[in-house]
């Protein structure tokens, strides 16, 4: 056998001087270059090594010499030496026991990570100890209620009792700062996410001790149970959604406690051998010229390596990895030896300290790439994958650990290693395919930045600061801001590494003709993760815990790549999202809701519009059959997206030679050749005769015939003739495919591709199915399938293989970011806003306590308690101010604000463009509407206290555009999803409540304002009307009677609890935001269209009647329940409904008040249709409210005197002040009138049978029955001048005096009525109206009220066709016209809106 000479120089440099020269067989060299793929279980076979008489044996037998070296390694002094296993029972590999847990858990594949899915579940390990000192560690994935420690085999767990709740178990709970052993006592420190909790048990001394991040918390338990039959298992009890990861010794202890052994034993001999092998490997790597795995082969020198030297390196590498390979399955060896070795190749320290600064370390990746090349070459694939899996888990554990330094050493260390790993092409693709997008999405964990430990915050900010404490320019204020800047600096360094990591994963230059780029893989895996986990309604849907960091990292990465690859800028610009992306199948939205309904229905009903928008001319009826390549201006996705030209998209032709039945064939045209194209079209199919297609000329597109038997059968059934190859597709056939049942049925069938009786290749089969399904818009094929002949819509996607189009890829990632924002970011933002509210509440409480301390109304003992409260408030404020400093440094930053603002503008532009596309607007995903609204609110109110939104350029114009879009689309008929409608309506109501957004609404074009107002004034029947009513209330609040102040009157009453913000009515916590501009549009809409005004006001009165009736009914139920002798609990749901009905009643009254002030003729001008009837009905409702509320003996007064929790907002003032405002607005203009003809409102009120003049006295506290003991009689005078101005109060008194005066005048006329002339319905007024055709009579008031709801006579039940007064006036006529518009007219008006 020929031998290949080994280089003595290489051998001596690697192994020492004893390896000086030698040779191995050619088989050995070949084996070194291409190692065997057989499993390496036993030592390598050395039979092929040939000894030579000329060479010493130690040179020929390389492997034997290596084995001798390894045997000489002493085990003395090595770490983790285990001299005895005495005191331990159980398997060698320690895991959680899946047969010994109570509750529901998600357990990881290695059975070391558990996540609770029940209220309180318990789990224990499969190994116990009864003697000696033992330790295990737990990394916290959450910081909630958990009890961690030890239990015995006799411990009985349940959903109520966990670790530490029994006499034979012991636990520590860092959430409640307690230790548990049947009873509980204070112990330990507050734990945080990422903490490493060490659990140590000393069975020799009989005590248990816990550690937090290496710091002892003290001995928790002494004299624990010991003796015969007692052994302790590691155990944990977790509340819902709490999770931990255990380390029983499978990897080195993060904080090993001297004298304690890990639960899982390790062989030190393997560690020593691994160290020696890695020393050899390090020497080998240094011998590769320029750290290149395949260098230039030559005679040596100047970066060129000789052939013998290179072959020697290959052989040595192979032999080293044959010994190292089996250890790749050991997580302990990987963390203890391989990870430090890999970090060393990067220039990082082999071991990292908790407070070590490596943020400025310069990383060299070339040698790391060499190492990975060598490993992928000489390791078996399972060994390499096992190594990378364990390495990823270890790095994630490091990254998630709680940082004890603002310099984040472990996080920098992990990211540097990750970036180097993913910088290697093959390793990067393995990470993308198998490691980063698991069910927990490790990628998101690597993109998250956890707040530093509480102790670190205290070191950075020894004394908390807030505005109310000291001025910002004070020493404390400056120190506080300096600490924020320091944190921002270190966080920015870590964020830059995360962006670099994402950019590495998004590499777009590694694609080939047969392999997609890493960017394509990344986007596909991210989309699948969204489909399976993030998307609402997905099977595995779970909360996205790291959504905020992921969202902003994605945005920053998109902005950086956009600047580098498309348009250089420094403004963090984002790519535009064309509306065509919502329906051209470029991005698979799976089952995400569209604003227009189900996507399947939308594709069926809008296929023609889609083909027109995408310029698929062959699909359009009577369109040209041959299309030339389009120009950039024809591209629906923009100039920067390449769109291949398709000549003939679909063609039915030919005769099937297989039988005598005519079978239509689909003629599919391939896209024109593109740069870097991946298809060779000429070799894709055969003709009907079984021959290959003829060679095509340059730039000619070949035709691929595909036989579709299903289409032939449908054609035969419908009688459609087949066409010759030269004919184009007729309108009839196209209609069959596009809109008939035939075409739709074909979409659900497979397309059989046959030629001469033989089936074509599967890819061509898929192409045919994709062509029909995609062309019709119902493509069910998965996202980014292999590119075969397909329709132009999906071709806009680009190629699956090769380099992706940068613009298209960034748009898809941006779309992913929007989904992540909607599904997870808002929850985290709410936590931050809650922090700001807590600081405000603590500040207010501290201020009140200090005022009480200086008061003379408290005793010395009480002042001591107040002083204690002040100290507690101060500590809480210091703690919360530190957390707010973290928010300012890491969460709400100027860069994030700018990114959010840029995204807002991008989404708004896409939505406005989509709206201009007519019916295709229905394809917009509902998430885009939610994102628009929530981003606006994020920038305007949630970020604004920390970062003023006024810092953003052009923010006012952008907010005005958002306001206009929401105002003009919240009633858009193209939006059919109820959730989207609610989102838009709530958004508009929030905008009207906010002064900044209200100003933006007022800046809209007058036409848009009119459209919005008309949509708000739609009748309240058959729609969700409470929010629309609230909008009108907010437009009016600040102008009405007793409705001009922000403070709630209830909050100033000592016997009332803190007011609760209502849901549908008037919020007591919002400042008034009256809008004269929008009020003028309301006036115009009501005055210019009496029919619309009548319909709207009629619906308002209907809802007012319903709301008040429900409220009174619930009050009576509550009163009856409270009056029972036995104890009765009133349901909170009943109280909430009662309160809601009360709020709705007062809100509806305020709307009526506004109408009477700004558009009174629609109610008091009797020349207008139905004005008199509406006014009469309003007077009836006001009378009922006054009678029910204006009494101290009714159910209303009795219930509010009970002071029931949940009814704090139910008081006299809100509703009676609204009624008084209506009376004031309605009667104000009649005060100086002397003729009864000039006081229509006064007469209508006095003519109402249920009206009682004495009820008006209740408003001023006059003529009231005795009140409950300890309460004062109600009077509006008590609210002057804080809530009611003196002028308004004086005017109200004049109005009531005016009503009383005319009541006396009109009463004398009523007394003279003859009994025969009195109305037999009300017995209050004379008969003045005659019904036709039955000629029965009643008073005008009764018949007008009756006709509002029914059209039959009181007496004979005949249909009333006409009603005439005694003066000859016709007040009702159904023969000519109705007083209210027809349903058809209303429907037409809604369609116009």
Automatic annotation (TrEMBL):
The keyword Zinc-finger applies. The lineage of its organism: Eukaryota, Metazoa, Ecdysozoa, Arthropoda, Hexapoda. GO terms for biological process: proteolysis involved in protein catabolic process. InterPro entries: B30.2/SPRY, RNF123/RKP/RSPRY1, SPRY_dom, TPR_RNF123/RKP, Znf_RING. GO terms for molecular function: ubiquitin-protein transferase activity; zinc ion binding. Keywords: Metal-binding, Zinc, Zinc-finger. Residues 74-253 form the B30.2/SPRY domain. PROSITE patterns: B302_SPRY, ZF_RING_2. Residues 717-733 have a biased composition (Polar residues). It comes from the Eukaryota. This is E3 ubiquitin-protein ligase RNF123. It comes from Allacma fusca.
